[in-house]
Design a protein that fits this description.
The protein is mainly α. The protein contains 14 helices and no strands. The protein has a domain at about 1-35 and about 210-270. It holds the Pfam family EamA.
Length: about 300
């Protein structure tokens, strides 16, 4: 298998696992009364421990190096509390109050908020392609929320707000660790950030009685933690070793595609033509941004 094939396979498998975990979470919430906070705490702590164990076996020297630098550890903690924890919590709340496809697609608005951040901090007007992406994202969101009807909402205001907050949190998740990732392996940074976030939420796990769940529900939680968090992330990171980051970001659109197909097929989630068009508009902004970045790099 060539490096290109390895990269394509890794990012697609990772994105599919991510998307599937959203649908599994939607099914889990529909069958149990377990709080979102408890699920997020279990996911972060469980996945964080698994990723750190992976790092201890594969890159133990980096683990020691990071732990010997208090400022870097503090930076990882800030990434965990301001990036990882809110992105996970808002995403699961968007699923719980709405559905997995819409939550996953609204999370893909994060490039819009990243663009807004750089526009403000650099005090530069956005490029024409950026303005066009903003238009596509806003119109796509309108179609998702209203089904194209001015006088109705297809999505509850609560689900819409959590979805938007999920996009904002995903942007912070992308922006915060940039300097850390220049010095340390992404698996280590994310694993430690998840672990400290899970520790912060551990009082929820301790104070809450272990829920009485059917074996299939425990299986869902195991998949959310292991398949939908640890392995999905490892596959995604592995793809960056073989293919360009812009191609990886474009192929990550398999995540909302998977969530939509599984939710419609298994959970009978209503997803009509207006929502499909809206989703395509939002996802197209990722492709356009990647294409524009590739053109700029080609000119330098």
């Amino acid at each position: 298998m060539s490096n290109l094939q390895k990269g394509l396979t890794s990012v697609i498998v990772g994105s599919i696992l991510w998307g599937a975990s959203g649908t599994v979470a939607e099914l889990f919430f529909s069958e149990s009364t377990v709080s979102t906070q408890w699920v997020v705490a279990l996911r972060l702590l469980g996945a964080g421990i698994l990723l750190l164990l992976w790092c201890l076996f594969t890159i133990p020297h980096q683990v020691k190096n990071l732990l010997r630098q208090p400022k870097q550890v503090l930076a990882v903690c800030l990434f965990g509390f301001l990036g990882v924890l809110p992105s996970q919590f808002t995403y699961f709340m968007a699923i719980r109050t709405g559905n997995a496809p819409t939550a996953t697609i609204l999370q893909f608005l994060s490039p819009l908020f990243i663009l807004l951040y750089f526009t403000i901090t650099k005090r530069e007007l956005p490029r024409r392609i950026d303005s066009f992406c903003v238009f596509l994202a806003m119109f796509g969101t309108y179609l998702l929320v209203t089904k194209g009807q001015f006088n109705q909402l297809a999505l509850s205001p609560e689900a819409f707000i959590w979805g938007i907050l999920s996009g904002v949190s995903a942007a912070l998740y992308t922006l915060l660790p940039r300097k850390l990732l220049q010095a340390f392996d992404a698996k280590l940074v994310t694993g430690l950030a998840m672990f400290v976030s899970g520790i912060a939420l551990s009082p929820i796990l301790i104070s809450t009685d272990v829920p009485v769940l059917a074996p299939r529900n425990w299986g869902m939680l195991a998949f959310i933690v292991i398949g939908g968090t640890m392995f999905s992330y490892l596959f995604y990171i592995q793809s960056l070793q073989y293919i360009d980051a812009s191609l990886t970001s474009m192929l990550s659109s398999f995540e909302p595609l998977t969530a939509t197909i599984l939710s419609v097929a298994l959970l009978h989630t209503a997803f009509g033509l207006p929502e499909i068009i809206g989703a395509l508009f939002i996802l197209s902004t990722t492709f356009l941004q990647a294409w524009a970045s590739h053109r700029e790099l080609a000119k330098t």
